Amino acid sequence: MANHDLTSRIAPQLDRHLVFPLLEFLQERELYPNDEILKAKIQLLSHTNMVDYAMDIHKALYHTEDVPQAMVDRRVEVVSRLKSLEESAAPLISFLQDANLVQELRPDRQYNIQMLHDRFQIGADQIEALYQYAKFQFECGNYSGAADYLYQYRALCTNSERSLSALWGKLAAEILMQNWDVALEELNRLKEIIDSKSFSSPLNQLQNRIWLMHWSLFIFFNHENGRNSIIDLFFQDRYLNAIQTNAHHLLRYLATAVIVNKRRRNMLKELVKVIQQEQHCYKDPITELLESLYVNYDFDEAQKKLKECEQVILNDPFLGKRVGDSNFATVPLRDEFLENTRLFIFETYCRIHRCIDISVLAEKLNLNMTYDESLAWITNLIRNSKLEAKIDAALGTVTMPVVHQNVHEQIIESMKNLNTRTYLLAKNIVEPAQVAQASR
Amino acid sequence: MASRFWTQGGDSDTEEEEEENSEYDGSDAEQPAGDNSGAAAGSRYLRGQASDSDDSDGQHRVVKSARDKRFDEMAATVDQMKNAMKINDWVSLQESFEKINKQLEKVVRVTESVKVPNLYIKALVMLEDFLAQALANKDAKKKMSSSNAKALNSMKQKLKKNNKQYEEIIAKYREMPESEDDGTADEDEESDSEVEEDPSKIVMSDEENEDDDDDDEDGHDEATEGDGVWERKMSKKDKLMDKQFMKDPSEITWDIVNQKLKEIVAARGKKGTGRVEQVEQLTFLTRVAKTPAQKLEILFSVISSQFDINPSLLGHMPINVWKKCVGNMLLALDILEQYPNIVVDDTVEPEENETQKGADHNGTIRVWGNLVAFLDRLDSEFFKSLQCIDPYTREYVERLRDEPLFFVIAQNVQDYLERIGDFKASSKVALRRLELIYYKPQEVYDAMRKLAEQTGTEDGLGNGDESEKNLSMEENRGPPVFVSIPELVPRKPTFSESSRALVDALVSLIYSYGDERTKARAMLCDIYHHAIFDEFSIARDLLLMSHLQDGIQLMDISSQILFNRVMAQLGLCAFRAGLIQEAHGCLFELYQGGRVKELLAQGFSQNRYHEKTPEQEKAERRRQMPYHMHINLELLEATHLISAMLLEVPNMAATAYDPKRKPISKTFRRLLEVSERQTFMGPPESVRDHVMAATRALSKGDYQKAFDVISSLEIWKLLRNCDSILQMVKSKIKEEALRTYLFAFASCYDSLSLEQLTSMFDLSKAHAHSIVSKMMVMEELQASWDQPTKCLVFHNLEQTRLQSLLFQMADKLVILAENNERAFEVRTGGGLEGLPPKRREGQDYTAYGANRWQDNSASGVSQGRQGSGYGGRLGYNGRTGGSAQAGAGSRGAGGHYGSMGRTSYRATAMRASQVEGFAGMVNLSRAGRI
After folding, report:
1. Among B879, B900, B911, which would you mutate to test the A interface (most chain A Cβ atoms within 10 Å of its Cβ)?
2. Parallel, antiparallel, or unpaired: how do β-strands B342-345 and A390-392 relate?
3. Which of B534, B546, B924 to mutate to test the interface with A (most CBs of A within 10 A)?
4. Cβ of B799 and A414 within 8 Å?
5. Start and end of every PCI domain (chain A) (predicted)?
6. Which of residues 94 through 113 in chain A touch B, CB cutoff 8 A?
7. Which of A295, A342, B221, B723 falls between 20 and 30 A from B895, CA-CA?
8. Across the interface, which of B773, B877, B930 has its CB nearest the CB of A276?
9. How far from the centroid of its chain's Cα atoms is residue B698's Cα?
10. What tens digit of pLDDT does each residue of B625-666 get?
11. CB–CB of A171/A194 below 8 Å?
C-alpha cells in the first residue's frame, strides 16, 4: 500500500524537523522496512544538531554500541558552538529573563532598541546572536526554548527578511510542540506577510505559499476548526493556483476535507473541476472516487475506489491520525469519510433512479450489512427527511417519487417576481416625481 | 555604357567584345552560350539599353559601319519609347513606333538578312506589355487626355496588326527571354526597389556615380579616361592589385591593406559598384590581411557585402553566396576562437588603428561587427529562399539540406557568445535555432540529425576539398595567406538524442536571459513542440500560464502567426488525445472568418469584398511559411469539423425546438445549412462533404454510417497512430449518436431497456449507463433508471402548445422588465437592487462581439484569437475564470470578475453565456464532458 504514500512528495516542502513525525508514523504503519526508515532518520538528523538522537538511532539500526567517529566529532563541535552562541547571546537573554526589565519594553521597536543599546549595551550583534542561538536551539530539538527566543527576537528584529524566517521557525516549533492554537495564529500571521509582502519574485512567493500549505496540514488536521480553515485557505485563488502549479498532491487533503465537511458541500463542484483539470498530473483513490462519482457516474468504480480510499487514509500521516486507547484505536477521519462518501453515493444514485433494489444498494454503498440493517439505514435517512422515498417492503425496493414541477407552477414561478420588480420600478419613478411636485 | 565603351575602344574589337560577354556571363549565369552573330550584334546594343535612359543619347559615335549606325538609331528610338512609356505619353509613343518600323526596314536592308533584329522584337514585346498594362488600368485610362487616349487606341490596333507578322518570334522570345534582357529588367526592378528602400542611398549614388569607379584606384591612369567600363576595369584592376600585392609579401603593410579596405567599403552601395566584384575584391583582401584583427574586420565587410548582393526584399540571396557567407562566418569564428583578446562590438566606434595590433598584442582589440545581426540575416535569407523556391522541386529539398549548415554556425555563435558572457545575445541566437526545430516531429528531427552527421563527415571532406580547390586557385593568383587560421570551431552540428532535450536546453536559456519578445516566441515554440509530441496538458498549461493569449494582438504579425500555428497544433493535439471540446475550442476561431490560410500564413485567401493593395500582398507574401513548415490544412479542417460535429449534433437535437439556445459552432451550422439546401447529394468529395454526410447520418443516430464516412477520409493516413485515433473517433461518434438519439426520440418512448441501448449503439453497459446518467444529472434528459429491471423510464413532460407559448411570453416579460430597469438605471445612474447579474454579463458579451466585428485586415491576423477558452480555464488566473464560470452557470456571477484581466473576463463571459442555458449542474457536467 506504499504506492499512495505521499511522504516523499511532501517532505521536500517541510522543515527537517517536521519530517520526523511523518517518519514516525510510517514506522508505526510498517509500510517500509524498518531499516530504511531508520537510515532515513539518520540522514535527516545529519544536518541537525540532534546528535545524541542520531547516535541512538545508529545503535538501533546496526545493533552496535559503537558510533562513528564523525558523529562523536560532530557532537563535540555542536556542544562548543552551543556554548559560544550562548555566551554571545547571554546579555540579552539575561535581560529578557528578568520580568521587571521586560516590563520596560514598549511596543515601539525603535525605542526598545535604543533603550537596550543605551542602558544595557545590547546592540545589533547581541540581537543577531539571539536569533542564531534560537536557531541552534531549534536544531538541537529544544523547540520550546527556540519558540520563546524567536518570539522575543521578532519583537526586536528590524530586518524583515530575518523576521520572516524567525516566524517560520516559530511556526515549526509550535507545530512540533503541538500547540495547535498558537501555531494557527502564527500561520495566519505568516500568510498575511506572504500575501502582502511584495516578494522579490512571484516564484519565490509561490514557493512560500506551497510551504505554508504543507506546514498547515499539521495544524488543520489536528486543530478542531482545521477542516474549515483548510478549505478556506486552499480554495483561495492564489493558493489553488499554487496547488495546480506545483503541489498537485495537496488535492488529496483538500478533497478529503471537502468530503468530510458537511457544510461545505457547495465546494464540491469546484473541487471536481480542479481534479479534472489536474487528473493528468495527479490522481489517487480519493480524487478518483470523486471523479467516478461526479464525472462518470460509475458507481461500481466508485465502490472500488472507496475501498482503496480507506487504506489511503489509514496510511496517510495527516489523515490517519488515531484516537483512543492503545488497544482500541479508531481513526475518526476515516469513519467520517466513509459515512459521507456513502451519503454522496446514495444521493447521486437516488437522483438518477426511480426504483432501487435495497440489497443492490447496500452492496454499492459498501455497507457490510444485512438486508435488515441496510433497510434500517435507509429508513433512518427517510425519517430524517434527507431523502424523499418510499420503501416497498414486499419487493425489497426503494422507490423515489418523480417530482416534477407543474407547468403552471413553473410559469407562475418565472413571473412571480415580475410584479414586485415592476412595482419597485414604478415606485422609484413615481416617488421622486411626487416629491418634486410637493416641493413645488 | 556601351557608348562609352566605344568611345574608348575606338573600334569593335571582337576580343573585347568577348571579354565583355564573359564578364557578363560571370554576373549573369543564364546567358545562352551560342548566340548567332546577329544576336551578338544585337546584344551589344542591348547593353546600350541597359544603360540609364538619362545617358545622353545624342552622343555621336566616331567610326561606325552603316550597320552599326542603323542599329544605333534603332536603339535610340527604343530609348525614346522607354521615356515615353515612363510618362505614359502615347502620342510620342505612337510616333516612335512608326519610326522604329521605318528603321527596321533600313536595318533589314543593311544587314541583308531575313531575320528581324532582337532589339526590335524586344521593343515590340515591351510595347505589348505596356499596352496590356495600360489597358488593364482603367482608372488611368479615364484620366488620360483625349489625344492620348486616341493614340492609345490606335496604337492598340496598329500593334496588333504589326505583331501578327512576328508572332512566332515574339512567342519564342517570350518563352525564353534573353538573359540580358531579363537581367536589365531585373536590375531596373532592383534599382526601383532600392529607391523604395533607401532614398538617401540613391541620392548619394546619383551624385557620385560620375567618379565612383575611380576613387578606389590610387592615382590610376584610367581615371583620366573618364568613366570606364567597370567590368573591364575590374579585371585590369585585379591584375593591378595583384601586381601591387604580388610585389613582395613583405612589402605589403597593414596600411596598404587598410587603405584598400576603406576604399572598397566606401564604394559600397554606390551605383555602378558591382556587388559581386566587391565581394571578390574583399575576399582577396582577406588573404593579404596582416593581423588577425584586420582579417576579421575584412571578413565582416565581406559578409556584409555578400548580404548586399541581393538588395531586393522579395528575392533571396543566391544560394552559393549564402553558403560562402556561412563559410566566412565560420572563419570569423575561428579567428575569434584563436584570439580570445579580439572583441566584436558594434556599440563603440573602434579606434582608427585598432586592427593594427598584431596577434601578439595583449589586451583587447575591438573590432566593429555584430555576429548576431549577421546570423539573423543569414537565417532570414535562408527562410526567404525557402519561401521563394517551389516546394515541389528538387531544389527545395537541396536547400533544406543546408539547414544543418546554419545550425553549425548558430551553435558556434551561441557558444562563442556564451563564452564571452553575452547571454542576452546568445538567447537571441538560441531562438533562431529553436525556430528551426520546434516544428519538427521526432522522425523529422532524427532524419535531420542523421543528415547532419552524414553531411558533416562528407561535407567536412567535400567542403574541405572545395575550399582547398578554391584556395589553391586563389593561391595561384595571389600571394599566400598571411594570417592562416586553423579550423577551430566544429564544422558539424551536434544534436542531442531527442529534440525535446534540445528544445528544453534552448528554451531554458531564453527564459532566463531573453527579452520579452524572444521569450514569448520561445514559449510559443515550446508549446508547439509539446503539442506535436502529444503532450496536450503540458502545452495547455504552458499557454495558460504564460498569458500569451492576452497580449498576442499587441505583438508583431509574425508572432501572431506563430501563435495561430500554435493554436492549430494544440487543437490537433487535443483531438488526438480525444479531447473534443478542447480541440474545438482551439480551432473554432481559426475557422470563423474563413481565412485560415491567411491566419496560418500558408497561402492567400481571396476576399471578395476587400481588394488588397499590392503592398499588402507583398507584405503577406513575405510572411508566408515555407512549405515544409506547413500544417496540413485538410487535416486541420477535418479535425475542426469533426469536433464541431460531435459537439453540435447532440446540441441541435437537444435544442431543436428551443430557439433560445445558441449553437456551439456557428461555422458548422452555416456549412450544414448550405449542404442541406442542395437538392442533390452527390457522393462526398471534399473533407467538408464527408463531414456533412457523417452529420446527416449521425443526426439520425446511425453511428456506423457516420463513422464509415469519416474513416474513408484520406487524411487519417497522415497521423502516426491512426488506428487508435480512429478508434477514439468511433467511440466518440457512438457516444454522441446515443445522446442524439435520446434527445431526438425520447418523446417517442415510455421506457427503454439498457440492453437495447447497448445493442443499438454497440456500447458497453457501463459506458451507456454512465452517459445516460450524466444526461439525467444535467437535466438534459427527463428520465430515470429503474434499477431492478435495468430500464430507462421517461417522464414525458410534453408541453402543450399553449404552455410553451406561455413560457415564451413569460421570458419576454422578464426581458421587458429588465429593459425597463436598465433604462431606469441609465437614467438615474443608480442601480436597482435585484437586477440579475446575468444581464450585465450578456451586455458584456455583446460588446465583445461588436469588438470582434471591427476587425480590419492589419490586425486581422490575430484577431480574436484571445481567450481560446477551454471552459474558463484561462491563465492561472483562469482559476478565477473557472470559478466565475461556475458562478455564471448557476446564475450567481459577480464578485469574481474584479481581479481578472480583461481578456479572460471576456472569454469567461463568452463561455458563460454559452453555457448559461443549462441548469445548475452544468459545470460539473461540462467538466464531465471534458
Report:
1. B879
2. unpaired
3. B924
4. no
5. 219-405
6. none
7. A295
8. B930
9. 39
10. 888 888 888 889 899 999 999 988 888 888 766 666 677 888
11. no
**Residue B908 at interface with chain A, using a CB cutoff of 8 Å:** no
Q: Which residue has the cell 483531438?
A: B575
Reported confidence tier of residue B270, pLDDT bands at 50, 70, 90: low
Q: Does the pLDDT value for residue B248 go beyond 70?
A: no
**CB contact, 8 Å: B785 with chain A?**
yes
**Which parts of A119-173 are beta strand (E)?**
none
In angstroms, the CA B199 to CA B67 distance is 41
Closest CA to B588 of B698, B493, B482, B664: B664
Distance CA A48, CA A138 (A): 9
pLDDT value, residue B25: 43
Q: Could you read off the pLDDT of B410-437 as tens digits, one per residue?
A: 888 888 888 888 888 888 888 888 888 8
Minimum-distance CB partner of B795 among A241, A298, A402: A402
Per-residue pLDDT at B845 exceeds 70: no
Note whether B930 and A296 are within 8 A (CB).
no
Who among A245, A281, A354 is closest to B786 (CB)?
Answer: A354
Bridge-based pairing of strands B751-753 and B791-794 is antiparallel
Task: Kindly give, in sequence order, each residue whose CB lies less than 8 Å from that of residue B713, ignoring residues fewer than 6 positions away.
Answer: B638, B687, B690
Q: Of chain B residues 303-342, which have a CB less than 8 A from chain A? A: none
Compute the distance between CA of residue B293 and CA of residue B275 in angstroms, rounded to an integer: 24
The x, y and z cell numbers of residue B198, run together, are 533607401
Q: 362-391 in A: which are within 8 Å (CB) of B?
A: none
Are B788 and A353 in contact (CB < 8 Å)?
A: no
Assign residue B596 a region (left: φ > 0; alpha: ψ between -120 and 50; beta: otherwise): alpha
Helix or strand (DSSP H, E) at B808: helix B801-828
Mean pLDDT computed over every residue of chain B: 69
CB contact under 8 A, A402 and B787: no
How far apart CA B492 and CA A82 sit, in angstroms, is 60
What cell does A119 get?
542602558
Q: How far is CA A300 from CA A289, A303, A306, A375, in A?
A: 10, 5, 10, 21
Phi-psi region of B893 (alpha: psi -120 to 50; beta: other; left: phi over 0): beta
**pLDDT at residue number B314:** 66
Nearest to B178 by CA among B319, B38, B318, B68: B38
Question: Chains A and B: how many Cβ contacts under 8 Å?
Answer: 123
pLDDT tens for B305-363 read 777 777 666 677 778 888 888 888 888 888 888 877 777 776 666 565 665 666 556 66
Distance from CA of A352 to the nearest CA of B (A): 5
Closest A-chain CA to B766: A298
Residues near A30 by beta carbon (within 8 Å), at least 6 away in sequence: none
Q: Across chain A, what does the average pLDDT equal? A: 81
Contact state of B899 with A237 under an 8 Å Cβ cutoff: yes
* pLDDT single digits (tens) A46-95: 777 777 788 888 887 777 777 778 888 888 888 888 888 888 877 777 77
Query: Using CB atoms, which residue from A356, A360, A425 is nearest to B824?
Result: A425
Q: pTM of the entire structure?
A: 0.67
At CB < 8 A and 24+ separation, what contacts does B235-243 make? Answer: B235/B19, B235/B23, B238/B280, B238/B281, B238/B284, B241/B281, B241/B284, B242/B477, B242/B478
| A337–chain B nearest CA distance, Å | 21
Whole-number pLDDT of residue B373: 85
What share of residues in chain B are helix, strand, coil (percent, to 5)?
70, 0, 30
| Phi, then psi, of B491 in degrees rounded to 5 | -100, 10
What is the helix (H) or strand (E) element at residue B344, kind and residue range?
Answer: strand B342-345
Chain B residue closest in CA terms to A276: B927
